[in-house]
From TrEMBL:
Pfam families per UniProt: Phage_T4_gp19 (PF06841)
One of the record's GO molecular function terms: structural molecule activity
Stated name of the protein: Phage tail-like protein
Lineage of the species this protein comes from: Bacteria, Pseudomonadati, Bacteroidota, Chitinophagia, Chitinophagales
InterPro entries assigned: CHP02241, Phage_T4_Gp19
Transmembrane regions listed in the UniProt entry: none
Superkingdom of this protein's organism: Bacteria
Organism: Chitinophaga skermanii
Length: 153
């Protein structure tokens, strides 16, 4: 058993597995995110009523479904980020290819403790945080990605 348990949730990196033949190559700054959320499975269910039994309904599982993956980071110019270019192409030209992502939870030596592989992600939303002169905050961009499923490796 690891001497460090439970692991901390603030040391991680996200790698987009863009097609090596394509025009997009992940930049060094594209692994740095402030937060990742949405590695969730939910079971879809259906209710079944039994004839003559009025006290309850049977709930049966149908299939699992994932929630959207949400990635937040300080904003980069699209020319400095393959992820921003990918989203820009998707929303402005409606041309994109779904990509796989690898999310690594790291230890103190920057080695992966746990790895999640997200399959066939595509951009569903891209948001830039509000500008506010009253607050001295970093401008955050948020990527909302739809994906088929994830595996724990």
């Amino acid at each position: 058993m690891n001497s460090v348990y439970p692991p901390v949730g603030f040391h991680f990196k996200v790698e987009f597995l863009f097609d090596k033949k394509g025009s997009q190559q992940q930049a060094d700054n594209d692994v740095m995110f402030a937060s990742v959320s949405g590695l969730n499975y939910q079971m879809q269910t259906d209710s079944l009523r039994e004839g003559g039994e009025n006290r309850f309904e049977h709930t049966i599982p149908l299939r699992s479904k994932v929630t959207d993956l949400v990635l937040r980071r300080g904003i980069f110019k699209p020319k400095d980020s393959a992820i921003s270019q990918w989203c820009h192409e998707a929303f402005n030209n409606f041309t994109f290819t779904p990509v796989d992502l690898v999310i690594n939870l790291l230890n103190e030596k920057h080695e992966p403790l746990m790895t999640w592989k997200v399959h066939r992600a595509w951009p569903k939303g891209w948001k830039v945080a509000d500008f506010n002169a009253d607050k001295g905050e970093v401008v955050i961009e948020t990527f909302e990605l739809n994906y088929n499923y994830f595996t724990l490796e």
